[in-house]
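Study this fold:
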Amino acid sequence: MKYLVDTHAHTIASTHAYSTVHDYIAVAKEKGLRLFAITDHGPDMADAPHFWHFVNLRVLPRIIDGVGILRGIEANIKNDAGDIDYFGDYLQELDIVLAGFHEPVFPPADKQAHTRAMINTIESGNVDIITHPGNPAYPIDITAVAVAAARSHVALEINNSSFKMSRKGSEANCVAIAKAVRDAGGLLVMGSDSHVAFSLGEFSQALAIIEEAEFPCDRLLNRSPEALLSFLAKRGHKTVDDFAEL
């Protein structure tokens, strides 16, 4: 099965990334991707775009050359209360909200603090997907997080870049997460976490984790644009008529 949806990509608005929206569109067309999300880092990161960047995502066309673009953010989990660095009515204007731990905003603490922060973020209702929860720098109670995510209809991410460029040592955690989410009845999504357009839609190593865990395809959000868009609608995001053609 070919997966034609990617929920996690960074542009040059996050200055440690290297591609423009135009670059991503070109690669998406070349690879046959149908839908992807622009999810630059939330404003509390040192080199993140300004808050206004996310407000002004409304200028992006919904579909360019047959490829759908979701207006999103990878927000930062700020504290163990589960607060993130994007808030209020502004969240409702985005198509998709990701959030995760990043060292400059939430320095690694202990397993209890990480678990509490992640579960509170999940239960806040503000976040659709938790990014790279298998990061070994942030150990969590995997079963407790998986159960909370399933209960709150929040997806956990298997992050492909964690096995290639960063967060080395994530494999065992990610297999355990996939199995725990499987058993809890929850949802997973694969994210390329692209910081350059060439890796958009690259899931080879994440897919190996999914297969090792025997995770059911019908609970993997990348399986189709319809699957992801239906999930986002159930999460309370506005239905976008422009995406009907996808």
